[in-house]
Structure formats: structure tokens, C-alpha cells
Amino acid sequence: MTGPPHRLQALVARLHWTISIPIIAMLELALAWGSHPHGVVVAIIGVLLIGAVLASVHHAEVVAHQVGEPFGSLLLAASVTVIEVGLIVTLMASGGKDTSELARDTVFSAAIICINGIAGAALLISALRHRMAVFNPEGTGAALATVATIGVICLVLPTFTTSHPGPEFSGAQLTFAAISSLAVYILFVFTQTVRHRDFFLPVAPDGTLRDLDGDDHADPPGVRAALISGGLLVVALVAVVGLAKVESSAIEDGVDALGLPKAVVGVVIALLVLLPESIAAIRQALAERVQIALNLAYGSAMASIGLTIPAIAIASIWLDGPLVLGLEPTQMVLLAISLLVATLTVVPGRAKTLHGGLHLVLFFAFLFLAANP
């Protein structure tokens, strides 16, 4: 008789590394926290970081398969962002005035990485593999509109407001931006998971919804296995973000040695933190489930802004130093052209290799200008 316990035992036996690596990574994080590692230790932490990323992707997919879409992609995006917020607040609390631009640079980097890097790679891979990347323009367009709205409110308007000197919000303006972004994020989640859930499910090349529970798909892993993976997902994500922070000192040393701007540190850390979403999105694109890949990309960008800004607004009550949120002119241009190209990509509901390539060019332009402003 083959029941849930037997499936669980087979799952554990086959995927034991996804259980051990997050635990080992957490132990290494406990040993290395607060230190300034060098040499071999940095390499070991890097290996464990990559292992924790791969493990988190697996456990997120197990949980997603149990709860169904779009809850799975929403869970991974929100989980990483919540931990990312904790990392930003921790760094700002310990860095003082030197971290006044940290929240802005991290949120902007995450948004560009998601809109151009993750979405662009998913579109390009799917189009190359299946001739055309097909998705639902109604759901994807709603997600992109949400990203654009909260992105402009939180990152562009501070550059032009006059109540406070510099690209900063006044207290009342920051409160309004925090409440607005959080309200819009909650409204989108309600739309995605309750009101119009079918808009965010994968579609077939003819535009019809795919049957994720059809006979050609594996059965859900079971509640017990999903709960275990959910716990291990949290452990793996904490390890990813924590080890990224530990590695940040080595990254800063490398950036200084190369003579690169300090902003590059935030870009590298954002890339590390977003690795789980990146790998998960590429795997979905290879499986011709571009809608889920875009759910991850735009959902992560949305959560990075919609959850981070309210948290930073609350934390600013006791944090010292200014909070710079307004983008620089070059950053605003990159954000504007990224949203424009994304809109033109999303409207038809299908994308060619050209669209993926355009997004990746913008992504590499972002990386290049971060190193050569």
C-alpha cells in the first residue's frame, strides 16, 4: 500500500541534501554572525549560500505544489521580502548616517532585477524553447501596474517634493507613502488570490488555462510534507539573507579594492537575496509556465517596495540619520524605460525572444551604470 507516509519517506530519502544544507547553513550563520570572514571561510560561506538558495527553491516548489498557484509564487516572493526587510533594518540600525540611501538603493535594485533580469530571462528562455512566451495579459498587466504605481509614489516623488530638503519625504509624506503602498499591495494580493485568481494561472499556447491538476502532473506532496518544506523554506531563506549579510563585508572589501562605487554592494546583495526567485522563475519558464515566472518577478518587485517602505517608515521612528528615498536622474530614467518596455511586452499576452532580450539589455545597463555611474 502506497500512502502519504511512504511518499514522505521517499521524498526525504531522495532529497536529503535539501534538508541538511539549510541546517548546516544556519549553524554556519550562527558561528560567523558579527565576524569579518576572510579567505577559505568566505569560500565556504559562499558554497553554503548557493546550497541554501537551491534548497529554498525546492521547498518553495513543494509548498507551491500543495497550495496551488498563485499562492505558491506569492509565498516565495513575500517570504524573501519579509526577511530582506529585516536585513535592511538591521544594516540601517548599525550603520547610522552612512546607510541613509541603503533602503532606496536596495529597493530600486530589487525592482530592476525583477522587472528586467528575472522577467527578461524567463521570457527569453521560454521564447527560445517554445517559439513564443505565452501568458495572461490581464493578470500580468495588473501586477505591472501595481509595481509602477507604488514605485513612482515611493521612489520618484521624493525627488520632487519640497516639504523637506533633499530627495526625502517629510514625516506626513512618508506616512502617506507607506500606507498607500501597503494598501495597494494588499488590494493586489486580494485580486490575485481571491477575486481574479484565474488571471494569474498559466495559459496554453492557444490562450486557454492550463490544468495544473491534470493527469500529466504529479500528485501534491501531502500536508505533512508541505509543512516540513514550509519550515525548511523559512530556515533556508533566513540562511540565505543572513549569509549574504555576513558576506557583505568581503563584498565591500572587494568593491573597495576594485575602486567601484559603494552602491555596487547593495546591487550584489540584492542579486544574492533574489537568487531563489531567479532560479524558480527560470525553471517555470523552461516548463512553459511563463505566467508563474512573471508572477514571481513582478510579485517580488511589488513586495520589495510595498512591504519594505512601510517597514522602513516604522523603523525610521527610532533610526538615526536621514532616509533618502528619491531616485537619482539616471535611476529614474532606467525605471521609466523599464516600465515602458514591460508595458509593451505585457499588452499582447505573448512575447518573442526580442522582448526578453530588450529586458536583459536594460538589466545589464543597470549593472554597468551601477559600476560606472
Automatic annotation (TrEMBL):
Keywords: Membrane, Transmembrane, Transmembrane helix
The Sodium/calcium exchanger membrane region domain, residue ranges: 40-193, 231-370
Major subcellular location class: membrane
Segments traversing the membrane: 12-33, 39-59, 71-95, 107-128, 140-160, 172-190, 225-244, 264-282, 294-318, 330-347, 354-371
Location of this chain's protein in the cell: Membrane
Lipid bilayer topology: Multi-pass membrane protein
Protein name (database record): Calcium:proton antiporter
